[in-house]
Amino acid sequence: RLEEFLKQEVDLELSTLPEFEERVIDVSEVEQLMNSINTIPAPCAPVINPQAPNAATGTSLRVCWGLFSDDTVECYQLCYKPVSNERHSDEQAEHTLKVKETYCTITNLLPNTQYEFWVSALNTSGISPPSERAVYVTAPSPPTIKIKKIRSCENAALVSWESGDINPVDSYTVEL
């Protein structure tokens, strides 16, 4: 059969000319799908630690927090403001710091003052919900001894001092 087929004349001309369309393929859906696969999720809310002993001076506080998930975090956003008992406490100045670590020492604070802190985690996908708020307190400023009011006798001494703090101090330690 092959031999007979090869003996025949075959017309190789196409009866119609092929028309090729210039097609633009829209890959935006595929691209969007690929980007969604490679995107990391926004992090979970960090957990702020309560104030640690000896983490305060009269003008500074060391604040620590943790992230209890395997989320990718580029930095943290630490926010704080002084705690006020007044009704206009929302008008208090709110401060925000960007921090790379899970701790921060805040300086230039007022002595014997309560501050409210909260933190959020950030990555390329977005920002986490804020942590719960924690209240930290700076140490009181040292009292001033009233030198003119010092009195003494053979077995006793009277020493007076005054606190420069606005908020009341719990106790004082007198050393001889």
Residue windows where pLDDT falls under 50 for at least 5 positions: none
- According to CATH, what is the class of the domain at 47-137? Mainly Beta
Largest sheet: 5 strands, antiparallel
Strand content: 25-35%
What is the end-to-end distance?
Answer: 124 Å
Cα-atom radius of gyration = 36 Å
Number of contiguous helices: 2
CATH topology of the domain at 47-137: Immunoglobulin-like
* Structural classification: mainly beta
| Chain-averaged pLDDT | 85
Query: What is the total tally of β strands?
Result: 12
Q: Fraction of residues in helices? A: under 10%
Order of helices and strands: HHEEEEEEEEEEEE
The CATH architecture of the domain at 47-137 would be Sandwich
What is the 3D shape?
A: rod-shaped
Protein name: FSD2 protein
Organism: Campylorhamphus procurvoides
Pfam families: fn3
InterPro entries: E3_ligase_FN3/SPRY, FN3_dom, FN3_sf, Ig-like_fold
